[in-house]
Amino acid sequence: MPFTPDCFVTEERRAYSLRRGPVGVLMLHGFMGSPTSSRPMAEFLAQQGITVHCPLLPGHGELPEKMQGTGSREWIAEAEEAFEQIQEWCDDIFLVGHSMGTVLAAHLAMQKPNVRGLVMLAPLYRPPSRAISLLRVGRYVMPWFYPWRFKKLRRLAQERVLDLYPDLDLEDPKVQAWLPQATRVPTCAIDEMRKMADLGRDLWPLLKVPVLIFQGARDIAVTPGNTEEIYRLLGSEQKELHTFPRAGHELMRPFEPVHAEVWSRIRDFVCHFEPHPAAS
C-alpha cells in the first residue's frame, strides 16, 4: 500500500497522479522534500500528454522531525510501489529524481526493464559534510542535528520550512525563536540519507539507460565537482550534463529563472525517444 502519513500533511505536499498518455514519468523527491517541488513541472509535462506520478516518501511532507523511525528501506519500498502504480497506466516509463530521489530512480532503472531514461536533478553523490559519516555511530548517542546552528546550512533549512509554511514571517521574533527547533533533523534519518548516497555510488557505473543531468552551480547542498564525478562514472552511453551557473538546488522550480529550460529539455528527452516495438 502507498505510504499514508500519520500526521496532517496538506494536499499540495501529498502524492499526486496526472493521468494522460501511454508514456509516463515517475517523479521522486529528495531528502526532506515533498511532491510540492515537482508539481508545477508535472503539470507542464501533463499538458504535453505525458502521465506523471509522484509518491510521498515515508516520514516526509511535514517538519523534519517526522522522519524519525524511517529510512532507506522504506524510501526504496515506496519508490518501488510507485513504479508498480504508474506501470499499470504506461508501457514506457521515464524516471525523474531530485537530489536523493536520483538514487531511488537509479535503483529502479536497474530493476525495471521498461525504464526508457533517467533525469537527474541536483543528484546526490556524497552528503554535504564529511562529518555526516560520523553518524554511523553518533546516531545512537546524539538523536538530533540542528542545521540552523550552522551558517552554511541555514538557508537550506529555511527553504525546507518555507516549503511547508510559505507565508511564514521570518522576521518575526517568535518565528526566529522557533526555527532552530522546527528545523531539527533526526540523526538516524541523516545517516539513512548517507546510506542512499553510498548506494548511488555503487549504482552509477552500472546504469545503461539514457541519462540527462541538471545541476545548479550555486547549489549549497551539493559539493562542487560531485555531479561531474557522477557523469564520469555513469555506465550509460547516452548521457548529457547541463550546468546552470546561477541556479541553486531547486533548479526545476518556478522561482528559479532556469526552470523553463529545464522543463523543456525534460519534455524533449521524454517525447523524442523511440518506443520499443510491441511484442508479436
Query: What percentage of amino acids are in beta strands?
Result: 15-25%
Rg over CA atoms, rounded to whole Å, is 18 Å
Average pLDDT for all residues: 91
Note the total helix count.
9
**Shape verdict:** globular
Residue ranges: pLDDT <50 for 5 or more in a row? none
Overview of this protein structure:
The protein has helices at residues 39-47, 72-87, 101-111, 135-138, 151-164, 173-182, 187-203, 226-233, 259-271; strands spanning 16-18, 23-28, 51-54, 92-98, 115-121, 144-145, 185-186, 211-216, 239-244. 36% of the residues lie in helices and 15% in strands. The longest helix has 17 residues, at 187-203. A 7-stranded mixed β-sheet has the order 1-3-2-4-5-8-9, with helices on both faces. It starts with 15 loop residues before the first strand and ends in a 9-residue tail after the last helix. The protein has one domain (11-131, 194-271): Alpha/Beta hydrolase fold, catalytic domain (Rossmann fold, 3-Layer(aba) Sandwich). The chain is globular, with a radius of gyration of 18 Å. β8 (211-216), α8 (226-233) and β9 form a beta-alpha-beta unit. It is α/β, with parallel strands linked by helices. It has 9 helices and 9 strands.
